[in-house]
Design a protein that fits this description.
heterodimer; A: alpha+beta; Arc Repressor Mutant, subunit A; SH3 type barrels; 4 domains; 5-stranded antiparallel β-sheet; 4-stranded antiparallel β-sheet; 11 helices; elongated; B: alpha+beta
């Protein structure tokens, strides 16, 4: 056998040999019979045999990580004196179960090649599954969009296109989504393997860039952006980083199969969700009270900005905010174009006015 | 066509699907397979060649090999043995499914019962179709696509769009003192730049308009159905995170300071200015969108032209200062 064997071929050889067998296959049998390993395994040279064995171990681990459920079994032979490793890949675990809509028969003429479980879905459930995968395949810069499309293909194998109609909703990619995705890939790989990452981080309005080493705990998509939540090694605390503000993302490549850290059991990613930009900073927190004029007050209420403190007879409402980073808060208030004003603290009110005067001066207005 | 990097994992994912799909009696057309898999037909032929090159290497009787052949533009598989069925969802596929479900559940029309129902179904489906349920992975990823409020407006509009039914909405335009009532035909919902919009035919304005969901105070289905015109394309109204309407757009030039220039460069073509700042030509339909866009950058963005848009931004800044605009 002189031609090079590709990884795909080795994997297919191994899966073909294992799947569908009723009893676990001893590792010796695998090495003897799977063509990809057999040649080296049969060699007189011990190095060759070891190489073949390592190749099998790696292929098996990679296939498991890919989701091929190869089970390990250990057998005792020779009246319990020896143990052998064996492997099993049952059809029931390997293949997708048959999916069928409630009240609909399995299409005549469509074969059921194996004995597998059947999953019955209502129309509403099938639609929800389609909607869920539609979201996952469309979400801007989602690193597993390919996997979402693949999952959809698998479910659509039994459920026809009608049952999996797309929802009238779509996500528009931001400019720069490609660059974000390029950074998200190594970050999500590091997160899955629990490896440390290093990157250069730019605080947008602070100007300076800093080098960070972070243990990724989670990735969050919110307000149209991806954020990394993790333990900042230098600061010894949990921090949130916007992925679009990272540069030179470098995961730790040494010992790829050994995690660099544990994620604390009390860490909850949800605690870092639904945060506004001004809630993410590490400045001393301050409580700001903001008056929203009517009907802006309705909007603030409906969208859950801050906490209601006081409702006035004219329909305006005072709401309180916990601000941990002043600049983004001020810029947000600026976009409300005077329909919201800071009541307290006075220094914050003055800062907002100073910013408005700067904008006014830039645009040729009369300041003062 | 740029040659795509293709990993062994992607190849395995494709070949397992192709063999299962083409095992049907009539086989599958190569073009259809390529479209479903999102690759060029040549890629599928290469995958097949690679996978079948070793059919006869297996010792006789150890495996039931599959044969793949082409008949016209159709791919047919003959196999009495394995691979005639797609495989279970991989951990990352199950993660994608699970995350999608959690987004749906979070946006479920303000109904706790519906949310629970969706999550329970998600868990049942995940454990039924995945090789390993994604619970562990789901703790590491979270998505919030921010339905404003309790999500009920979005739910009403989504259902109305799916069923092509008209809606009455109360819409809060920028700078108005009371919500404006409109009857609209919701064509599609779009998420751009962190906000949801509905692109709808407005019966009052007699044209297609965009409404930001966070500014719709209430929405309800009313009598009457509609058809979406065949020539309607959402991309004509919203693209690259910007809202515009091809027939009514204005062009503006915005300068961004050196401090934020690097991020603006990432988003598309810019003109480099001498002091390190950059200028960008933007085409938008909604003046208010542009004013807010400039304001959100504080003093780091400036409208260079047109002059009346500069005045709009200046007026907005005056309103922040508590001066009534004239």
């Amino acid at each position: 056998m002189s031609e090079r064997i590709t990884k795909l071929q080795r994997w297919l050889d191994l899966i073909s040999y294992l799947v569908g067998r009723k009893v676990p296959v001893a590792v010796e049998d695998i090495m003897e019979n799977v063509p990809a390993y057999a040649e080296k395994w049969r060699s007189e040279d011990k190095t060759d045999r070891d190489t073949a064995r390592r190749m099998f171990e790696r292929d098996k681990d990679e296939l498991r990580a890919f989701g091929i459920p190869i089970e390990s079994r250990r057998y005792r032979i020779n009246y319990g004196r020896d143990e052998i490793d064996a492997y099993l890949l049952t059809r029931r675990n390997f293949y997708l179960p048959y999916l069928r809509l409630l009240n609909e028969a399995w299409p005549s003429g469509k074969e059921k090649p194996y004995v597998l479980d059947e999953v019955v879905l209502t129309e509403d459930e099938a639609q929800a599954a389609a909607d869920a995968l539609h979201v996952a395949s469309q979400l801007p810069a989602f690193p597993f969009a390919r996997q979402a499309r693949s999952a959809r293909r698998k479910l659509a194998f039994d459920l026809d296109a009608e049952a999996l109609a797309p929802t009238p909703e779509f996500y528009v990619d931001r400019p720069g989504a490609e660059e974000v995705l390029e950074r998200l890939r190594p970050l999500s790989d590091a997160l899955l393997a629990r490896k440390a990452v290093r990157f250069r981080y730019h605080g947008i309005y602070r100007g300076e860039a800093t080098d960070r080493e972070v243990w990724p705990y989670g990735l969050v998509f919110q307000r149209g952006n991806w954020y990394l939540v993790g333990h900042d090694v230098g600061r010894d605390a949990i921090r949130v980083f916007r992925v679009g503000r990272m540069e030179d993302v470098e995961p730790n490549r040494s010992k790829p199969h050994t995690p660099d850290y544990e994620i604390p059991s009390d860490f909850r990613l949800e605690d870092h969700l639904r945060k506004e930009a001004w809630e993410l900073g590490d400045e001393e927190p301050l409580v700001a009270e903001v008056l929203f004029r009517f009907p802006r007050s309705l909007w603030a209420e409906r969208n859950g900005y801050g906490r209601k403190v006081e409702e006035r007879p004219d329909g305006s409402v005072v709401r309180a905010f916990d601000v941990q980073q002043v600049n983004p808060f001020l810029r947000w208030l600026l976009t409300l174009e005077g329909e919201a004003e800071v009541i307290s603290p006075p220094a914050l009110r003055e800062e907002l006015h100073a910013l408005a005067r700067e904008v006014l001066a830039l645009h040729g207005g009369q300041v003062g | 066509m740029v040659a795509m990097r293709t990993t062994a994992e992607e190849q395995l994912e494709r070949i397992l699907y192709v063999v299962a799909a083409a095992s049907a009696k009539a086989g599958r057309s190569l073009a259809e397979l390529a479209e479903t898999l999102g690759v060029e037909p040549q890629q599928i032929t290469r995958d097949i060649e690679e996978a079948t090159a070793r059919t006869f290497h297996h010792p006789g009787g150890t495996v039931d090999p599959f044969d793949i052949w082409f008949e016209g533009d159709r791919v047919k598989v003959f196999s009495r043995g394995e691979f005639r069925r797609p495989v279970r969802l991989s951990p990352l596929e199950a993660l994608a499914l699970g995350l999608g479900f959690r987004v749906l559940a979070a946006g479920a029309a303000g109904s706790e019962a519906r949310r629970e129902e969706l999550l329970a179904f998600a868990r049942r489906l995940e454990s039924a179709v995945a090789a390993t349920p994604p619970e562990g992975l789901l703790k590491r990823f979270a998505v919030d696509d921010g339905s404003p409020g309790d999500g009920s407006v979005r739910a009403v509009l989504r259902q109305a769009a799916a069923e092509r039914r008209r809606c009455r909405i109360a819409y809060l335009s920028s700078g108005t003192t009371r919500p404006d009532e409109r009857v609209v035909c919701p064509y599609v919902l779009a998420y751009a730049n962190g906000a949801w919009y509905v692109i709808a035919y407005c019966t009052k304005r007699e044209g297609v308009r965009l409404f930001r969901l966070d500014r719709i105070v209430t929405a309800e289905v009313v009598d009457g159905t509609f058809e979406v015109p065949a020539d309607f394309h959402p991309a004509n109204y919203i693209t690259e995170g910007r809202v515009y309407r091809a027939d009514e757009e204005i062009e503006a030039v915005v300068r961004y300071s050196p401090r934020i220039a690097r991020w603006i460069r990432e988003r598309g073509p810019v003109e480099e200015l001498e002091d390190g700042s950059v200028a960008v030509r933007l085409r938008v339909a909604d003046v208010h969108w542009l004013v807010r866009h400039v304001l959100q950058h504080g003093a780091d963005a400036e409208v260079l032209e047109p002059a009346d848009l500069r005045r709009e931004v200046a007026r907005a800044a005056e309103r922040v200062l508590g001066r009534e605009a004239n």
